[in-house]
Amino acid sequence: MSVQPEDRTTIDMFSTTRPGRPRSNPYDRTQQSRLNKRSQRLRDKHAGLHRLEVKLPADVVAALDEAGEELGMSRAEVITKALEQWLHL
């Protein structure tokens, strides 16, 4: 019988006990990151969000961050609001 990385029931059957804090998650860090990212993409998809990458000059990003601080919003929220106003949505 072999151990599959995604198998939660047999993951510890073949490992030796080690001193220290017990593992709270049977997956290693790379698998955890992959699963978390997949969950995030699915949440965004169900919320109707699309990923978009834009390269901006540093002074524009600094201005966005300042505006976000003043308004109590994240950088993405500031960009979304600005685009909504500009596009009259």
UniProtKB/TrEMBL annotation:
Residues 1-41 are annotated as: Disordered. Residues 50-87 form the Ribbon-helix-helix protein CopG domain. Residues 1-10 have a biased composition (Basic and acidic residues). Signal peptide: none annotated. InterPro entries: Arc_rbn_hlx_hlx (IPR013321), CopG (IPR002145), Ribbon_hlx_hlx (IPR010985). SUPFAM superfamilies: Ribbon-helix-helix. This is LexA regulated protein. It comes from Thalassolituus maritimus. The gene is ybfE.
